[in-house]
Amino acid sequence: MPQDFEDGVDRSRQIPQGNRPGSRAPRSQAPDPADGDVIRVDTRRSTARPIPTRKIRTDRPSPAPAGPGGPTGPSGTGGGGGRPPRRHRKLRLTLTIVVLVLIAWIGSLVWAGTSAWNHVAKVAAEPLSKDRPAQGSGRNYLLVGSDSREGLTKAQKKEYTTGNAAGGRTDSIMLVHLPDSGDPTLVSIPRDSYVPIRRYQDNKINAAFSFGGPSLLIDTVEQTTGLRIDGYIQVGFAGFSGVVDSLGGVRMCLPHPMNDKKAGINLPKGCQVLNGKNALGYVRARYSDPLGDLGRVQRQRQFLGALMSKAASPANVLLPWRLHRIGSAGAKGLTIDKNDSPWEVAKVLLAVRKVSQGHGQSLTIPLSDVNLQTHAGSAVKWDHDKALALFKALRTDQPLSVQP
C-alpha cells in the first residue's frame, strides 16, 4: 500500500529503477527486482501553467488568389502540379483542331488525285526501235487529241455529232518542250503533215497513229524531228468534253461566227462560255475556218490554254471535291504511257497553261506548201531548213530563230 505523506515532509517515492514506469529493460537482460538502485520521483501535483497565446501578424501581404490551375507561382503559370491555365488549354485545343483539319484536307486531296489517276488508261507507247534519237537538253512530251469515241454513250455521240467510227485517229498533235531552265515551248504539228512512216510509205502523220497507235506515232515524230520523246498524253472526246462540263464551261472569244454541221456547232461571233458539246465542236471544226486545218491548230492551242488556266485555278486544285470531279471527268478519256508519272503529266499540263499566259512560245512547224498533192490527198509540207533549225534549237535549249 502507498504510504501517506504529511505536509512539510518529503513527498517523494522511491521506485526501483528496474520498475520505472515507461522504462524498457534491455533485451539481453531482464530487470532485477532485487537491484538496490532506486530513483526518486516527485509525486506532488504541479500548478498548471497558462499556455501563451501566439500573436498573429496582420502586417503581412495577403497571398494571391488561386487560379484555375492552383496558386500562382513566381512565374505566373501555376504551381503545385495543378491544371494549366485556361488560356493554355484553349490554345492547345485550337492547335489540335487545326492539325486535324490540315491532315484531313491533305488526305482528301491525295484521295481525289489517286482516285482519278487509277482510272487513267496506261499503254506501252514507247517505240521498240533501237535507233532512237539521243537525249538532248530538256524533255519532250507528245500531247495528242484523239477522235476516239470510247467512253461516249449513243446519246452523246449523236449530240456531239461524232459519228460511230471505230478506233481512233489524231485530231491534234502537239510537242511540249520543257527546257532545263526557262519557259516551255508548245509546237503544233499539223495532222496532215506529209512525212515518212517506218515500214510504210510516206503519208500524213496522223496515219501513223492509225497504223500503229501511239508507239508508231512517237517513232514517226522522233525520226522526222530528231527529238527524243520522253512521254505521251492522249485526250479523247469523252475526257475533253467531260472536263469542260465539270468546270462549268470555258470562256472563249470568237472573231467570227462558226457554223459547222460536221462539227455540230453554230456559234455566234463574240465572247461566250462554251460547254462540253460546243467546245468539242469548236476545236474539231475546220471546214468552217478559212484557214482550214491550220486555223484549227491555232484554235486548239488557244482553247487548251484557256481550259488549263481554269482547271488549274486554286479553287479547283485546292478543294478536294472539285479536284475529284474534274479528275474523274478527265480520266474517262485520258491515255498515257505506262512509264509516265502523275507529276510528269501535271508538269506538261501546267506548261500548256504557262504558255497560254504568255510565259513561253507557241508556234506551228514552219510550212512551205499547205496544199501538197499526194496519193493520200491534199497534205502540208514542212519548210525543211526552218524546221531543222527549230528542232536543233529545241534539242540544245537555244533561243528559237523561228518566229511564232
Layout of helices and strands, plus pairs?
Elements: E1 12-16, E2 38-42, H1 86-117, E3 121-123, E4 139-146, H2 154-160, E5 170-178, E6 185-188, E7 194-197, E8 200-204, H3 205-225, E9 231-235, H4 237-246, E10 250-254, E11 258-260, E12 265-267, E13 270-274, H5 276-284, H6 293-311, H7 314-318, H8 320-331, E14 334-337, H9 342-356, E15 361-364, E16 367-374, E17 377-382, H10 384-396
Parallel strand pairs: 3-14, 4-9, 6-15
Antiparallel strand pairs: 1-2, 4-5, 5-6, 7-8, 9-14, 10-13, 11-12, 16-17
Description:
- By secondary structure, the protein is α+β, with helices and mostly antiparallel strands.
- The protein has a domain at 121-396: Aminopeptidase.
- It is built from ten helices and 17 strands.
- The protein has helices spanning 86-117, 154-160, 205-225, 237-246, 276-284, 293-311, 314-318, 320-331, 342-356, 384-396; strands at 12-16, 38-42, 121-123, 139-146, 170-178, 185-188, 194-197, 200-204, 231-235, 250-254, 258-260, 265-267, 270-274, 334-337, 361-364, 367-374, 377-382.
- The strands form six sheets. Strands 3-14-9-4-5-6-15 form a seven-stranded mixed sheet, sandwiched between helices. A two-stranded antiparallel ribbon has the order 1-2.
- Helix 5 packs antiparallel against helix 6.
- The longest helix is centred in the N-terminal third of the chain and has 32 residues, at 86-117.
- Residues 1-9, 33-37 and 73-80 have low confidence and may be disordered.
